Amino acid sequence: MNQDYIKPDNWSIIEEGFDVERVKSSESLFSIGNGAMGQRANFEEAYSGETFQGSYIAGIYYPDKTKVGWWKNGYPKYFAKVLNAPNWIGIDIEINEENLDLHNCTEVKNFRRELNMKEGWYNRSFEAVLKNGTEIAVNIRRFLSLDLDEAGVIKYDITPLNKDAKIVYKPYIDAGVTNEDANWEEKFWEPLEVKKGTNEAFVTAQTFKTHFKVTTFMHNTILANGENINVSPSTIDSTVDKVQYTYGTIIAKGQTSTIQKIGGYTVSLNHENTLAGAEKVIKSAVALGYDTLLQNQIEAWAKVWEMSDITIEGDVKAQQGIRFNIFQLNQTYSGKDSRLNIGPKGFTGEKYGGSTYWDTEAYCIPFYMATKDQQVARNLLTYRYNQLDKAIENAKDNLGFKNGAALYPMVTMNGEECHNEWEITHEEIHRNGAIAFAIYNYYRYTGDYSYIPEKGLEVLIGIARFWHQRASFSKDKNQYVILGVTGPNEYENNINNNFYTNYIAKWCIDFAAEQIEKVASEYTADHKRVMEKVNLSSEEIKEWKKVADDMYFPISEELGIYLQQDGFLDKDLVPVKDLDRSQRPINQKWSWDRVLRSPYIKQADVLQGFYFFEDHFSKEELKRNFEFYESFTVHESSLSPCVHSIQAAALDKMDMAYTFYLRTSRLDLDDYNKEVEEGCHITSMAGTWMSIVEGFGGMRVKNDQLHFSPKIPKEWKGYSFKINFRNQILKVAVNHNETTFTVDSDQDLTIIVNGKPEIASKFVQIN
């Protein structure tokens, strides 16, 4: 653990005391979003200290030209940037003719931030002494509406404490923003139009190259002691990309002056005329008013929590951690729009670029399947189906593959590859397997097979064709091998026969062939349509099966384990426990050459295969592989601790499972990897949910039934969660004496608990 300033609380993230060294970290941790847009917790007023300004709009990106020292054939032409969107939250403030800037105040005291996760709002309060001697108390509340998801609201209260004050508010909207993360220091926004009204303003801009049009808007209301004083701006300043209004007020000592600012974005993805759309949003928001908008926000979040909450008794930090993760996931992706996906930083930062990684299929889909309607998960699968043509084009143009072989991108915004590290872009091909596995996982969990004949089968065929062509036959081994890859452990590049990659390649081919047979027998019209569309013959399927049936897997007979790749045991196998703590994290302390030569594992690799295909291996095989590879894993990927927590629980290593749970749930809150100021690790947060539901709860789906093997850490008194399984809501509650299962309907549900069938019903609890 590297930081410990967040106060433990069941429902809120709280910071007390102003520390300039924590500003950027807190900007990440207190970020807010509503699925359509989001923003870091930047100050509304000017701040001259170090800050990372960031507002973001879902689906809006810029293709920043790739910048590398040595260009290699096949490099993507661009690295898609998550765009820093125009700023609508800004409010410059003058008090008795001095600018309010916490970095320059004589004193800042009683500083407090709160991110109320239960109700979906962010609050900041402080008292400050300005250099001119004026003392003020300030309280700011901000939220992004879940219901009116193109609008956000700010309520900024100022109370002078020692004298009357002339307060000047200067709210603005500004499209002249730049990205923290940019390859060539280019501006990404082109201003188009500025429109000014009495208390509202609009700036319309579009992205260069991609031509996404966005209208940023604001509406301002000035109040004194809670009453609208109907003040009009005294001045209006504007440029081609910025509008700023000035409101002057006088407020007596002890009285409260307020500006309420409504702002947000309308985008061309959703509006033919973004300006007209913005005017409608303002009209709707103003008609509702601040109090109603806030109450609607509280009620909307209550509905979210009703299904997705996990309760933990007796461990406040663990409770705070899981709710923070669930909150951020729901802020990032609502499931309303199949054009959108779950970016690894969500709306909290710009690092990594792109909106879609294999994280979605491997980690996020289980969370959304179980806590929302199954259509949300189906939308995520449809997102990939809609980009199949781009995946085929990627395999053809960059790898020379043919006949409809598909390689899905490592990182994408629109289906094109936009990751610019060659050893990842072209070698970390296991992501194809996660996409196929997600199709299987969706059917296994929901029982909805219709997606496969309608859309999924085409994806499975493209992926199977890829693996067939990517494998090569080794005369020496008399088996098929896969050379020159990077597995999930990115601390190994350009290796041969990564176990996880080879295993999932075989599985993908077998699964595709099985589904072709099933669709042929049960969905004949779809089978005929798909086979004609992709021009697939039975002879080609036989050629696939040769690869799958004779795939090579590196093993150590002596240790009884699968080898992460050929030659892994040739390394200097010094376990992590013997690595000097001063050398961690190694990705920040060591050269890349040293990292690659080491045995240290960034994240679950062989164990990722054991996680996906648990039923393919014995408990003893899991134990041997887990104990060997965990000892070399540094967990410098956010995706790693959750898999280890689940498997440690399965092996009854509960102390270890609990430790890994805390690491995954508080990865950002405690800044384990010393990088939270760049943004939070959103996609891995779904793994935190899995650590409880699949780890401690032991939930699995086998043969169309839910299986549980509940366990509880000794640090907890109890925990509970809900899941939506095939349109039945099941609540699971575990304590040290009993486990209860109840369904939220009159229809009973047969489940398997510790290997025995039980009936969960609305009225009967199982002990």
Automatic annotation (TrEMBL):
Glycoside hydrolase family 65 central catalytic domain residues: 323-690
Q: Per its record, what are the GO molecular function terms?
A: hydrolase activity
Question: Where does the record place the Glycoside hydrolase family 65 C-terminal domain?
Answer: 699-757
Keyword Hydrolase annotated? yes
Swiss-Prot/TrEMBL keywords = Hydrolase
Q: Which domain of life is it from?
A: Bacteria
Where does the record place the Glycoside hydrolase family 65 N-terminal domain? 14-268
Task: Fetch the InterPro entries from UniProt.
Answer: 6-hairpin_glycosidase_sf, 6hp_glycosidase-like_sf, Gal_mutarotase_sf_dom, GH65_N, Glyco_hydro_65_C, Glyco_hydro_65_M, Glyco_hydro_65_N, Malt_Pase/Glycosyl_Hdrlase
Key word Zinc-finger present? no
Pfam family, any one: Glyco_hydro_65N
Give the record's family classification.
Belongs to the glycosyl hydrolase 65 family.
Query: What is the name attached to this protein's record?
Result: Glycoside hydrolase family 65 protein
Origin organism of this chain? Answer: Flavobacterium chungangensis
